[in-house]
Amino acid sequence: MHSTPKDPERWEYILTLEDAQQAFCDFSGQICFVGHSHVPIFFLQDEVGQCQATISPRIDLEPGFRYLVNVGSVGQPRDGDPRACYLVLDDREGWLQLKRVSYDVPRTQEKMAAAGLPYFLAARLALGR
After folding, report:
1. What's the CATH number where 24 sits?
2. Does 108 fall in a domain?
3. CB contact set of 29 (below 8 Å; sequence gap of 6+)
4. pLDDT of residue 29
């Protein structure tokens, strides 16, 4: 879903452990993929309900754990890394991995300007903010 599992249309962010703890209550599966914040992060909930967060690029899926995964952003990354970010799930081997890809930021900025998009959106591409 784009924002939160409880109410995706409200466009809320999941950025903290408190946000994640609430979100774990709002879905029943093992893994929930979210976005909206444009910040890649893994939230893990263990068998007793304790949450932790990691920005490690890869995690192994553990039996009994649940996962809330912000997959980052192919466009408008906001974690300080201007490269596009996407996620790979290997459900056979049991792992998740964030991948980064460089792209032609100046050309993208030119296209954004030509399309009439606000300058600040194009400017922050180079900063990943």
Report:
1. 3.60.21.10
2. no
3. 66
4. 93
Q: What is the DSSP string of 62-89?
A: -TT-EEEEE---SSS--SS--SEEEEEE
The contacts of residue 53 (CB under 8 Å, 6+ apart) are 17, 20, 41, 42, 43, 44
Distance (Å, whole) CA 53 – CA 45: 9
Report the SS3 class of residue 37: coil
pLDDT digits (tens, 9 = 90+) for 67-103: 999 988 887 888 889 999 999 999 999 999 999 999 9
Q: What share of the chain is helix, strand, coil (3-state, %, to 5)?
A: 25, 25, 50
Domain ranges, residue 50: 8-102
Beta strands at 31-34 and 66-70: parallel, antiparallel or unpaired: parallel
* 122 belongs to a structural domain: no
Tokens coding 3: 């924002």
Residue 35 vs residues 12, 47, 71, 75, 124: alpha-carbon distances, Å: 10, 25, 6, 12, 18
Alpha-carbon gap, residue 82 to 73, rounded angstroms: 10
Residue 82 lies in a domain: yes
DSSP structural state of residue 117: -
